Amino acid sequence: MARKPEKKETQVETTGHEWDGIEELNTPLPRWWLWTFYATIIWAIGYTIAYPAWPLISGATEGMLGYSSRADVAADIAAVDAENAPLNDTLNGLDLTEMVGHPEVGDYAFNGGKAVFQTFCIQCHGAGGQGNTGYPTLIDNDWLWGGDIENIYLTIAHGVRAEEDFDTRYSEMPAFGDILLDEEIAAAAQYVLSLSGKETDASLVADGQIVFMDNCAACHMDDGTGDQTLGAPNLTDAIWLYGDSLDAVTETIVNARFGVMPAWSAEGRLTEAQIRQVAVYVHQLGGGE
Amino acid sequence: MSTDDSPPKLYAAREPIFPRRVQGKFRQLKWWLMALTLGVYYITPWIRWDRGPDMPDQAVLVDLANRRFFMFWIEIWPHEFYFVAGLLIMAGLGLFLFTSAAGRVWCGYACPQTVWTDLYILVERWIEGDRNARVRLYNAKWDARKWRLRLTKWFVWLMIGLATGGAWVFYFTDAPTLLQNLLTFTAHPVAYTTIAILTFTTFFFGGFAREQICIYACPWPRIQAAMMDEDTMTVAYREWRGEPRGKHRKAEGAEELGDCIDCNACVAVCPMGIDIRDGQQLECITCALCIDACDDVMTKIGKPRGLIDYITANDEPLERAGNPPRNMWKHLIRPRTILYFSLWSLVGVAMLVALFIRSDIGLNITPVRQPVFITQSDGTIRNAYDVRVLNKHGEERTFHITSISLNADSVIDLELQNSEGALITVPADSTESVRVYLDAAPDQPAASRNRTEVRLWIEDLTNGDRYSEDTVFNGKAP
C-alpha cells in the first residue's frame, strides 16, 4: 500500500544523507524558534554582567547591580529585629515572674521561645522537650534545679557545669567507686531503689541505708528527696535521668554523672530577650512550677 | 507549483450571523428565563441575612479569606466541602436528566453563554436594527454612522460585561463595602483584575465569539450525545410533511408541494446560523426559536403549526405512516430518566440528611507523639493531645471538656495546659486549640498498658450540646 511521495518543486534541500533510499530533509528551524533562542543568549550575557555569575577561586563575580541573596536575608533579618525591638524591650523590662501569660508580650515570648527551643535545645532535650537518657525531660513535673520561671531562666542563662560562666550550675557528686567498698555500693544501690518502692534485696537495704546516711544524705537529704539548690535529684520519685535499673544506679554511684549544658548567655550565644523567651516556653511546656 | 497539491485549510473563517427578531411562546419563555437567571446572578450578592453581630450578613458569600461558605442559613466549613461536591454531582446528574428527556435544554435556555449572547443580540437589535438593517450595516463602508452605531453597541456591551464581572466579585466579599471601595478606587487589585478579565471575556464571548464558543470551545456538545436516545425530545423539522418544499404556491404542480414554503424564516432567526431542515446537527443548541418562526409562518398561510417542533426520533416512523405521535409522558418517563432522577434524588436526600444531622460543634484530636508519654514524679503516666474545638455558632461559646476511658478498668484524668479547670472558650464561628493532658495514676491498668481507648467529650455550656471523639492513651508497657 505504501505510496511513494510525489516530489514537489518546493521541497527543501536534503542533507545529502541517504539510507536505503530514505533521504534526510534539511528543514530549517522555525524562524520564531531561532529568534527566541538568540534572545535567550543575549539575555544570558546581560544576566551574567548584571548579576553574580562566574565562579572564581574564592567567590564569584559580583555583577553590576550588586545583588546578593545573603544581603537580602540580612536585610530581612534586620527588619524583623527592628520590628521586634519594642517587644523585646518590654520583655526585658519585665520582672521574670510577670512574663508568663503577660497580656502584651506573653504570646510573643512563647512563640519566640518555641523558635529558639527548636533551634538550640532540641538536639539534647528533644523536639517535644521529652529529653533522653542523661538529658532531662522538660515536660514532666520534676526539676533538678527548680522549675519556677526564675530558676529555669538561671539554668538557661548560666548552663550546667559550663566552664565559661562563673555563675554556672555546678553539682559535684563524688565518684564513690574510689571511696566506698563494692559491698557498700551494692547495698547503697539497693537502698536507693527501695526509696521509690522498687523491688529490692531486702537483706541489703538496711546496710545500704547506713551507707546512704553517711555518704549521700548530705545532698540528697535524709529522706532521699534531694535538694534543688544543690542540683541533687529527688531519689524517691519515679523519674530517673539515667535509668532505674540496678546497673544504672550502681554506675551512677561508682563513677558519678556529670551532665553539662552550655551557658546560653555567655559568648553572645543568645540575647537576653531570647533567653527570656525560651524560659517562658520551657516553663509552659507542661512541668513549670 | 499548483494549488491543487496544498491540503485543505484547517481554519474555517467565521460566517457572520444576523439572527432575526422572532415572537412566540418559546421566545417568551426565553425572555422570562433570561430575566430570572440574570436576576438571580445580579441580585443574589445583595441579599442580606442576619447571622449575629460578629458574622457576615451577606446571604450568599464565599469567604475565601476565612475559608467559610455561607448560603442563607447554611454555613460550610472547609472540612464539609463534600456538600459542594454533592451539589456539583447533583448539577451533573440534573444535566443528564434534562438532556436525556429534552435534549440540549441547558444549552438552549439556561447556559450563561446563551443567556448573555441573547442579551447582547437584544442590545445589537436596539441599536443597529433587525436582521436586514444589520446586514446592510455590515456591508456598509465605515462612515460616521457606522462608527457611531458600532461604538454605541460596543459601549453598551462593555457596560453589560462590566456589570457581569462586577457582580461576580460581590460573591466573595461584603458587597456594599466592596462597591464603595470599587467606586473610590480603594478595592484590592484582585477585585479590579477579576472584573477586568470577566468584562473582557463577557464582551468577547457574547459580542463576537457567540456560537463559536458552542461549536468549538464547549465540551458539552460532544458529551451530550451520550445521554440522548430515540425518546429524547429534540427540535426537528417534519420533513415528511414539509417536503418537497417550494415557494410558488400558485405555480403548476404546486399541489405536489409539502407544507414548507421555503421562506427561510427558520434560518434567519437561528443564532447558530444553521438550517434545521438539514436534520439534527452538532451546532443546534435547541433554542427553539425556529419553532416560533415557523409556527408564525404556518399560521399566516393557514397550515397547521408544528412543521418544526419538539419531536422524538421514534415518533418519526409513526408520523410518516400517518399516525399521531405517542404521548409526551411516555417519552419522558422511561428507565433512563427514572435512573437519572433516582440517582439525583439519592444524592439530594443524602445531602439533606447530612445537612441536618451535622453538628454545630466539633472536636479534632491530634495526639502528641513526641514523646508518646512521659512519667511524672509520682509515676503517673501522662499523654498530651492537641485538641481543636470547633464552634460554628455566631457567638462565643464555652465548652466543658471531659475524658472517659473506654476500658472500664481504668480512670483517666484530664488537665488543660496553662489552665485551671477544664473549660475552653471558643470565639464565634471559629476554632480554638488547647493542649490537653490525660493522666493515668500508676496503679491504673492504663498506665502500664500499651493502648487504652479514650473518649473526649465537649459540652456546650450554653445549650448542653455534646460532641465526642475517640483517641488512644498510651501507657508504659512493661
> Mean of the pLDDT scores of chain B?
89
In angstroms, what separates the terminal alpha carbons of chain A? 93 Å
Strand order within the widest beta sheet of chain A: 1-2
Q: Tell me the structural class of chain B.
A: alpha+beta
Q: What is the assigned CATH homologous superfamily of the largest domain in chain A?
A: Cytochrome c-like domain
Run of helices and strands of chain A? EEHHHHHHHHH
In round numbers, the mean pLDDT of chain A is 90
Could you characterize what this model shows?
Chain A has 289 residues and is mainly alpha-helical. Chain A folds into 3 domains: 25-63, no CATH class; 79-169 and 261-284, Cytochrome c-like domain (Cytochrome Bc1 Complex, Chain D, domain 2, Orthogonal Bundle); 176-255, Cytochrome c-like domain (Cytochrome Bc1 Complex, Chain D, domain 2, Orthogonal Bundle). Chain A contains 9 helices and 2 strands. A two-stranded antiparallel ribbon of chain A has the order 1-2. The mean pLDDT of chain A is 90. With 478 residues, chain B is of the alpha+beta class. Chain B folds into 3 domains: 25-226, no CATH class; 233-336, no CATH class; 361-473, Immunoglobulins (Immunoglobulin-like). Helix content of chain B is 41%, strand content 18%. Chain B contains 16 helices and 14 strands. In chain B, the strands form 4 sheets. In chain B, strands 6, 7, 8, 10 and 12 form a 5-stranded antiparallel beta sheet that branches. A 4-stranded antiparallel beta sheet of chain B has the order 11-9-13-14, with no helix packed on it. Chain B is elongated, with a radius of gyration of 33 Å. The termini of chain B are far apart. The A-B interface holds A 6, 8-10, 101, 126-128, 130, 137, 139-142, 234, 237-239, 284, 286 and B 1, 5, 368-371, 374-380, 382, 384, 417-418, 435, 437, 442.
